[in-house]
């Protein structure tokens, strides 16, 4: 791809006279390699990957060191005396704490276990003494009971979001191809119109000169001569308009694919090849549907949306009823005036805490929340079913449209060839004074219309072709998934 880019760059910079003819596949390669849209898609892909890595890291052991160092205080505090009076006593101390812990989340239960070491030092600067308190070893568990388990649901939903984001990246690149195809044919149609305008200007000028000679011989009327002269003026006007349209379309295409070049202050020309080699593929509707449901991010989104609504229903049920939280721990602890005392014959350290909440009267709030979540789940299921039908209909329509447009492109190509031959015959007959100016004008119009129709038919076909790729993320030419 880089070699293609350098080759095109070298050719385009040679000057406006030596314009390189570039094909549709080459434009699509450039668009996917360096357009702003493709770079934005790559950035979104990296964001999606880092978000998923951040999610996975939650279920790996977490080692942390936290503390308060220093924690110095110098002030006066009130002290209640035995007789009830208050006396303000001076304090000057430092109470520092360090805690080293290793924790592990448990997705199955929604809780976590941890191992810790802790050391605390207290300095009393007024009495000039120091005390140490520490936990040489401690292990504990924090476990929600009868509560909504967010971690378990995240383990099911986050991989779907990750897969959805990856497929969205491929879709974004295919959207880049489709947009580039539209801009390619906008320019191609403009170039064809420019060629038609240049040819008509030349032909009208030639026929007008021939008519001037025939007028002297009395073979054409003054009215026919004026009609040909008007044709020359209209051709000049159409040529100026076609040049402006082609220049704008060129800038749009180059801007989208991320290439801006100038030669002597003017944009270099860019000639496009007519992609008239239509692949003779026949797309099976069932195969297209199967690939779309297997590859599209929307298909993954169908499952993810229903799963998220199911999660919200469970959350509404469990967070509005009885729930509790258990915290328990075991370890060793000690204290003393020196640091070593903490580790000499430490004592057992145990604690158990059970906190609970039992709603007694909520005035229907809990039920309302549950019923709302149920309704949201039903709505999500119904919406997904409708979206699936629309999804399938879109694929079916696009496959049918592709086959029809393929036939249409073939027919318009034949009509274009016939119209060009007919115009040539009409032009020769006019030169021989065997055809009227009106009949020649009709032949010219039919020739131009047939040429435009042929290019527009090709544009419709290739737009449908790349739209089907976008809708299925499958390459039916090579029979393989787009990755």
TrEMBL record:
Membrane-crossing segments per the record: none
Subcellular localization(s) per the UniProt record: Cell outer membrane
InterPro entries to which the protein is assigned, alphabetical: OMP_efflux, TolC-like
Record keywords, A-Z: Cell outer membrane, Membrane, Transmembrane, Transmembrane beta strand, Transport
Record's keyword annotation contains Repeat: no
One family name in Pfam for this protein: OEP
Entry's family note: Belongs to the outer membrane factor (OMF) (TC 1.B.17) family.
Name of the featured protein: TolC family protein
Native source species: Spirosoma soli
